[in-house]
Structure formats: C-alpha cells, structure tokens
Amino acid sequence: MPPVLSADRVTKDFAVGGRQRLLAIRDLSLSVHEGEFVCILGASGCGKSTLLNIFAGFLRPSSGRVLLRGEPILGIEPRCGVVFQSYALFPWKTVRGNVEFGLKMQGVAAGERRRRAEQFIELVKLNGFEDRYPGELSGGMQQRVSLARILAADPEVLLMDEPFGALDAMTRQVLQEELLRIHEHSRKTTLFITHNIDEALILADRIILMSARPGRVKAELCNTLPRPRHVDIQLSPDYARLKSTVWSHVQEELLLQSQGAVLVA
Amino acid sequence: MTATDSTQEPLVAIAGAERSARRFWRPRLALLIKILSVLAFLALWTAATELGWVSPIFLPSPVAVARQADKLMHGGDLWDAILASSRRVFLGYAIAAGVAVPLGIVMGVWWPAKAVMDPFISLLRPLPSITWIPLSILWLGIGEGQKTMIVFMGTWIYILLYTVESTKRVDPLLIRAARNLGASDFAIMREVILPGALPGIISGLKVTLAISWSCVISAEMVAAQNGLGALVWFAKDWGNLALVLVGMVGISVTVLLADAVAERIEWLLLPWERHRRTST
C-alpha cells in the first residue's frame, strides 16, 4: 500500500537578510503509513516545524515535493489537520463554537454539527465547559479544545507541532495519556513533532530522528513498546533500553554539532 | 499595618489576607476621599465668592450656578440643548462609522486600497475639525447639515485608522488555522477577520466618540441657534457666567453618559473579552 503521507527529497531554504539564504531542510525523504503514529524528534532549529508547515501546505518546498496519498500537496490542505503549539483557538468563539468550526466550513447542518461537537468535547473530557471562551481556560484545556476541533473536522492525517511544548510537565503527561487513548480509538495517521525523547517514546510507533540544520533524517527507530500503551510505560526495562539507544544517537548528533561549531569558529 | 510591614511579611497566607483586606477597604476609602475632595472644593469656592475674594462678575457662587441649572432644567432649555447636540453628534458619528469601518476593513485586507487612500489620509489627518468650518458653511449653510459635516470630518479618519490597524493585526496564525479547517476566503472574512478586528474597532469608536463631542461643541459655538455649544456661547454674550458654567457641566455630564453607554455596548458586543476585565 502506498504511504498516506510522504516527503520526496524535500529541500527548503529561506532568505535571511540581503542575499544570504538559510538552509533549513536538505534532501529529506520520509513516509508515514495508514494508521501509523510517527514522531519527528529533533533539537530546536533542526527544521522539524518547517517540515510540518510544508506538509500542511503553509510553506512550499524549495525543491522536492510532499505527497498526500500520492498526490502533491500544493496549497493549504484541510485533509492534513494541524494542532498548533500555541493552540490557535478563536478567542471569540466558545469551546463549542471552536469545535464546530471545521464542520461548519464543511457545510454540516447546525443540529448535526452540535451533536458531533458534543461527542468530541466529551472525548477530550471538557463537558461542562462548552460555553466557555478559550481565554477562560488553562493551557492544557485549550489544547484539548484544539484537539477536539481538529478531530471533529476529521482530517485524513493529524499533524501535531509540539502540541504539548508550552505545557507544564504534569499537564503534558496527562495529555499524552489522553492522546494515547484517543489514538487507540481513532487510529488516525499522525505525524507528531517533538524535541522531547520521552514524549516520542511514549507516543510513537516509529521515531524519525532529525539532524540539526540543515535538517535531514539521521536515524529511524521502530518503537516496539506494546500497545495499548500508557505513560507508565516509562517504568519498563524495554523503555529504558530504547531510550538509551535514542539518546546515543542524539548525543552523537550533539557532538557533531559542537565539532561543527568549533570548525566554523 | 503599614506598607513596609507587608513587604517584609514572609507568610504568603497573611500577605494574601492583607491584600484582600486592602482590596475591601481601599475602594471605600477612595470613594470617601473623592467625596471630601469635592466638598472641600465647593466650600472653597463658596468662601471665595461669599467673602468677596473674587468678584461675581468673574466667578459666580455655586449657589448661583445651582439656581441657574434648576431654572434651565425646569424650563426644558437644557434638555433641548442636550438633545440638539446629541442628535448632531449621533448623525455625524454614525455616518463617519458607516463609511470608515467598511473602508478601513477593505484597506486592511487589500493593500492597493490602502495605497489609494494613504496620501489623502496623510493630508487630512493633521487638520483640526474646526478648519472645516468655513468650507462647510459655504457648502451647507449653518443648518444641521453643516454641524453634521464638522462631526463627520473630525471623526471619520480616526475611525478609519483604528479599523485599518485592527484589521491588519488579526493574528495570521488564526487565519492559517481557519484555512486548515477548510475555510474559504469569504468564511475567513466573516469568521476570523471581522471578529478578530472588532475589539480594536470598538475601542477606536470609543475614543472617537469623545472627539465627536468636541467637534460639535466647537461648531455650535461658531454658528448655531441651539445646542450645548451655542448655549455656552450665548451665555457669555449675555454676561451670564452661571449659565456658562451650567452649560460646561452639562457638556461634561452628557459626554460621560455617552461614554457609559458606549462601554455598555462594548460589553454586550464582546462577550469573550469580559473575563479579562473582571479579572484585572
């Protein structure tokens, strides 16, 4: 079966003042298969968010292409639903209004919209908060709304851009657990960006480790930890073993980077 | 307890209790001080006029002003003046908002429109509204149309500038998110840009409301038979200083009331901003 989502030798550079160009991603290829949960793990500045923005159609690659079910992504693609790190909720809409938004754009009738929104609000455990505005909610709750909003719109792929990056460690764990549960249900193909090794190990079926600028795929690891999974998987010996493997790759990368810095200096 | 004590207090609970006690007493104390302050001012004013420190030709006593106000209210003249001025403000301001808000939104989302308008805005903005009085009288005489035009000319550019700015400041991430959720250009306009710009537009309208009052008052002072500005101006000609002061207080109170109404409308239109106001 062809992959749901793939990048084919994607390169992206940006103009940075004058004639200089910053190479964010170089020759990157990867693919994500049906129902798979893939984490892209990389240090800040490795171009992982740029990659996600290319998949969402917010940015165009400088060369190479990204494909959704074999067809190139040429503009903003609602079939790839994005969960943003800063939630990007509409402050003037209630929780219900936010969750209904995608359905409204799809032309779903008001009654049906409300019923389906109800269902997803319940899925992220926000019953009782339907009529609140985002500004009245905590960061964790806002990210739940954003998750419900995108799930209600039912895209083919979920693109998650460090969605829990702005949350405190405890809230983060709670939401990771929720996401595991939701993924168990929906089995939605997901590409999840993070710089947190534990997060990648807890959530992913497969981890793609990115090297620092210009971003390339440094290593791919199959996460063999059993599903259904919970955050307490972190206590198992298998987890520790996997983590040390990932860590050794990361360390190697960091070492290369610091040597590079010395060479440049 | 003094302020230095509270900053040295290490216990959070005690500091919190102290803060809530302060929150209880301070507004009450402040209100008392305000009342005392006004009473002291009135006493000083009374003393100054009753004891002959200043001549009543330059400053009438508070009692004279109160008597004048009472007379004016009973005769209905004050209400007529307030009504006449309010009508002019409302008309000029409504037309200005009706023109400037839509135009400002278009300029905010479509740069060629902004480029067309920019040179005129740069030239018109520095002009105080009273500079339009000669032209407006030549064009429209000294009737209602002229007063309305002065209010319009004095306000529309500010409303326009506020609208353009608030439209441009709508978070591009929200537009992105809406597109990602399948929104069309039209839906982006209706669901994201308009509500996103609304708080800024409304605060611009609130600022401009006060400006529109100063426009109408100055227009009425130059050429009008009625209205609060004319009332004050005629009173000066008649040498009735008490009436001048009543007129000034009338203007002040009317503008305050208009502001209060505007606040209330803002509160109704922006339900999502309410929690922010109660929490601070």
Short description, anyone?
The complex is a heterodimer of chains A (about 260) and B (about 280). By secondary structure, chain A is an alpha/beta fold. In chain A, about 40% of the residues lie in helices and about 25% in strands.
Describe it for me?
The complex is a heterodimer of chains A (265) and B (280). Chain A is of the alpha/beta class and 265 residues long. Chain A folds into 2 domains: 5-79 and 157-264, Rossmann fold, CATH 3.40.50.300; 89-154, no CATH class. Chain A has 7 helices and 10 strands. Chain A has helices at residues 48-56, 95-105, 110-123, 139-153, 169-186, 197-203, 237-264, and strands spanning 5-15, 21-32, 37-41, 63-68, 71-72, 80-83, 157-161, 189-194, 206-210, 217-222. In chain A, strands 6-7-8-3-9-10 form a 6-stranded mixed beta sheet, sandwiched between helices. Chain A has a 4-stranded antiparallel beta sheet with strand order 2-1-4-5, with helices on one face. In chain A, β9 (206-210) and β10 (217-222) form a beta hairpin. The longest helix of chain A is centred in the last third of the chain and has 28 residues, at 237-264. By secondary structure, chain B is mostly helical. Chain B folds into 2 domains: 3-50; 62-279, Orthogonal Bundle (MetI-like fold), CATH 1.10.3720.10. The longest helix of chain B has 39 residues, at 12-50. The radius of gyration of chain B is 25 Å and the shape is flat. The chains are: A alpha/beta (265), B mainly alpha (280). The A-B interface holds A 56, 58, 76-78, 80-82, 84, 86, 88, 90-93, 101-102, 104-106, 133-136, 149-150, 153 and B 171, 173-174, 176-184, 187, 191-192, 195-196, 198, 270-273, 275-276.
